[in-house]
Batch of 2 targets.
Target 1
Amino acid sequence: DQQVKQNSPSLSVQEGRISILNCDYTNSMFDYFLWYKKYPAEGPTFLISISSIKDKNEDGRFTVFLNKSAKHLSLHIVPSQPGDSAVYFCAASEWAGNQFYFGTGTSLTVIP
Amino acid sequence: DTGVSQDPRHKITKRGQNVTFRCDPISEHNRLYWYRQTLGQGPEFLTYFQNEAQLEKSRLLSDRFSAERPKGSFSTLEIQRTEQGDSAMYLCASSLEQGIRTYEQYFGPGTRLTVT
């Protein structure tokens, strides 16, 4: 059973606009959430994370929002740049980070 | 470059053969994870080490899979009697157990296995 879901396999956005990537989860025991970016032929790269005690975390152009009641998180990229074109995975972990569950990924294309 | 490295990057093997992959984590990282990724899917957790101790193992992990981290540094993942369904990208990741940074995993480039 897929405990972390990314229902949009792909997303296209114009350069300079906002990209919003969504992720839903089912396990209420998840304590920590992360976003990874992946380029072809490379392993995923850590992007940004959020603890369940927060509802927002910002790092430069990247902001992650967490809605625990809806079991939903989103990644906002503003402004989007062509170099942001990649596959984005959300991931979740229960306390202690012994096991991580990944979504199926969303392929973002930023059009110049 | 002090990132996570994996060897080999590609492996083609015939069904029934055994294969072994190696992962060298970032040197100060005490946690090491193995994942498997197939096309169109996210990384799927296989197992996790803290130092040399294997602390978690996915219930989906077949008995044909075994992993070791003998001195708490590099790790090996062995698949015995490979099957075509084992064809996938095998990813290794490491992290440092240090508060919130525990969760920030650094991934290697992966080993792509093809079983013919």
Target 2
Amino acid sequence: KNQVEQSPQSLIILEGKNCTLQCNYTVSPFSNLRWYKQDTGRGPVSLTIMTFSENTKSNGRYTATLDADTKQSSLHITASQLSDSASYICVVRRGSQGNLIFGKGTKLSVKP
Amino acid sequence: GAGVSQSPSNKVTEKGKDVELRCDPISGHTALYWYRQSLGQGLEFLIYFQGNSAPDKSGLPSDRFSAERTGGSVSTLTIQRTQQEDSAVYLCASSPRDSGRADTQYFGPGTRLTVL
């Protein structure tokens, strides 16, 4: 079954700290993987997109990794800011023309 | 330029009523998607429009759900005879084209539907 599982479900960290969010998938065939940030009451916004051959990609303080062998991805946030408080959604494309499979997201709260 | 817009932002309706949700994609984007996001759940694909091709309706949960895209731009999602389980945030997204490799989707703010 094509699934995307994210962990933890929720996370609370102090401002300035780093954190890592996990995404495991069983989607096949794999095309690409995206991380989205969704602020409360807003639509998701793309952070990174990674294809099969890419192991790591950075976007400012966000760094995504992909291990296509183990079907795992992580999103690392460094020096967290209050504005990082949001849900982070992992999304995998099934095949080049297939649907996007969404994880349920990790809700991150950054406290002062 | 303007992003994806959706209206209304909130809709409260009574069980059994019909509702229409509107999506204005980014100008020039040929691909348009509708998703549903229920509380505590991931985004659920509903329907996909690409240019003049026949839409992919494989995600629509029942025949009470339908969508149109007029003139390749504005789209309307219609839910007939609403049920309480239809309560969710309905998100629309558009992308310049669906290349399969770099087709970032740009999401609207969503319409929060509450069925009483």
